[in-house]
Design brief:
Blueprint lengths: L8 E5 L4 H12 L4 E5 L2 H15 L3 E5 L5 H13 L3 E6 L14 H29 L2 E6 L12 H21 L4 E6 L3 E3 L2 H4 L12 E3 H13 L4 E2 L6 H14 L14
Parallel strand pairs: 1-2, 1-4, 2-3, 4-5, 5-6, 6-9, 7-8
Helix pairs in contact: 1-2, 1-7, 3-4, 4-5
């Protein structure tokens, strides 16, 4: 993480369970005070009490539904105004089962509001505050389906591809301002998101399912080593570099004054 003479407060969204709760635990162990954001006030209070008792750090909870404009604006403004915050873990998100054709407008709108709009607004607020301060860390939780969209639901996969693209662009915008930006691309991780989306994780090949603690520990190791994109289950980082190299090879021909001969 970006160095600071004072360990900054970390704001973690979706902090009441799963990946968010593990990030809260790991960051508390690193000495960060915490601002925990989620909808479930009771779970947040219990987690805050536990982390304060075990790690001797200060924990504030903020009950908010980031899919709701009023709640999102409240958290966004806190990020812009509170200069003690120097870490954002943009974790809150939902999944959706089934095809796009079968999804209701309400389901689609809710996913886009949380997985795209909220992530963007909070990342923007953090970028403004951290960039001005010349320090900070933004962690955006994406998914491996950003690279393999055919594996899962269309809207969810597209939302995570957006998060990956947003993070890579933010890295370019903030790298000269001493702000570290990371996209984390987990595979299937054992959390409540599956049950809430109507999927049974026990029906997935157990060789594909990672525990949340192991996933977050790998992601933080990637952050510490300076990775912009961390894929916790990927054995060889050279495979990702080869993917980027292949993508970059397309760049000279992505925009030209005439169509390629193969289309004529």
């Amino acid at each position: 993480m970006s160095a600071s003479s004072v360990t900054p407060t970390a704001l973690v969204t979706g902090a009441s369970s799963g990946i968010g709760a593990v990030y809260a635990e790991r960051l508390a162990a690193r000495g960060h005070d915490l601002l925990l954001v989620a909808r479930d006030q009771q779970r947040l209070d219990a987690l805050a009490a536990d982390l304060q008792a075990r790690h001797g750090i200060n924990v504030e909870v903020l009950s908010a539904d980031l899919a709701q404009a009023t709640d999102l604006a409240r958290v966004e403004q806190r990020l812009r105004d509170d200069q003690s915050i120097g870490v954002l873990v943009n974790n809150a998100g939902i999944a959706m089962n089934g095809t796009l054709a079968d999804a209701t407008a309400a389901q689609t709108d809710s996913l886009v509001a949380l997985n795209i709009v909220a992530v963007t607004r909070l990342a923007s607020a953090a970028a403004a505050q951290f960039g001005k301060a010349g320090r900070g860390t933004i962690i955006n939780i994406a998914s491996v389906v950003a690279l393999a969209p055919e594996m899962f639901n269309a809207v969810y996969s597209a939302s995570k591809a957006y998060v990956l693209s947003l993070t890579q662009t933010l890295h370019g915008e903030l790298k000269e301002k001493n702000v570290q930006v990371q996209a984390v691309l987990p595979g299937v991780t054992r959390t409540e998101i599956w049950e809430r989306s109507g999927l049974d994780v026990t029906q997935i090949d157990p060789q594909m399912v990672m525990e949340a603690g192991e996933m977050v520990d790998a992601a933080l190791a990637g952050l510490d080593s300076g990775e912009v994109v961390s894929i916790p289950s990927l054995p060889d980082a050279a495979d990702w570099q080869a993917f980027i190299k292949a993508r970059d090879a397309l760049r000279p021909n992505l925009s030209r004054s005439s169509a390629a001969a193969r289309y004529k």
